[in-house]
Design a protein that fits this description.
Blueprint (H helix, E strand, L loop, with lengths): L2 E3 L4 E4 L4 H9 L3 E6 L7 H8 L6 E2 L15 E4 L5 H9 L5 E6 L3 H10 L2 E2 L6 E2 L5 H8 L5 H6 L4 E5 L5 E5 L24 H6 L12 H10 L14
Antiparallel strand pairs: 1-2, 2-10, 3-5, 3-6, 4-5, 6-9, 7-8, 9-10
């Protein structure tokens, strides 16, 4: 296990997610899965099969991306032994999303995540695919001071990096030691991509980090269609 501790959050490779979900749950955190429906043709159908009674919140709802709800990640409460986690572990679909742990109320977590959807850059406001493990880990690993800023009320995230290895990111150096610090959600966009961010993705297409909603992020994928469970798109 590689532990990178820089005084502002931690980032480390781990063998699997279970012990870190259990630890967070034991310390009073709620757990959620954020699943990108575009990661796999059967992702949404699998979600409803494995978690039929769980509330499924649409991330893009009530945001500037509300016109593209079909492509929105879904937020679903989970436990460390939720069936959908086995599907993710077995299938490992590309850019499937991430697991979140927080002791803050869900409405605070949701408001913070929605505030990150659009960010500022030199070229104007762009979409931030922070739920994509390839993106998040590339930022949190070399720019540790960005970890607590991006996570906000989220105490811990678990996802797969671009080598398909599990990684764990904690907001604070000492997990759960700091008391809760509720903060007002800033109007979106408030997070900024800097030259340091751009350098992290010099070997990747810009679309992996941020892109125009209609042209780069959605249109190529939506051409292939998106299978939604009938009358079950999720809640807002």
């Amino acid at each position: 296990m590689e532990d990178m501790n820089h005084g502002c959050g931690t980032y480390r490779r781990v063998e699997n997610s279970s012990p870190y979900l259990l630890e967070a749950q034991d310390k009073g955190c709620g757990l959620w899965l954020m699943l990108d429906p575009l990661c796999h043709p059967q992702a949404l159908a699998q979600l409803w099969t494995d978690e039929p009674d769980a509330e499924k919140t649409i991330l893009f709802s009530k945001t500037p991306l509300a016109a593209t709800l079909e492509a929105s990640p879904r937020l679903v409460p989970i436990t460390p032994d939720s069936p959908i986690l086995r599907w993710i572990g077995d299938t490992a679909p590309l850019a499937w999303g991430m697991l979140l742990a927080s002791d803050a109320p869900f409405h605070e977590v949701l408001a913070h995540l929605r505030s990150l959807l659009l960010v500022k850059s030199d070229g104007g406001d762009v979409v931030f695919r922070f739920w994509d493990g390839n993106v998040l880990t590339r930022i949190c690993r070399p720019l540790p001071k960005e970890t607590p800023v991006i996570l906000g009320p989220v105490r811990r995230v678990l996802t797969l990096n671009d080598e398909k290895e599990w990684v764990c990111g904690d907001r604070d150096t000492d997990f759960m030691a700091a008391p809760p610090q509720p903060r007002p959600v800033l109007p979106s966009p408030w997070y900024c991509f800097t030259l340091s961010h751009e350098r992290l993705f010099h070997d990747k297409r810009p679309e992996i980090v941020a892109s125009n909603v209609t042209e780069a992020l959605l249109r190529p994928k939506m051409e292939h269609g998106l299978v939604l469970p009938r009358h079950r798109a999720g809640r807002t």
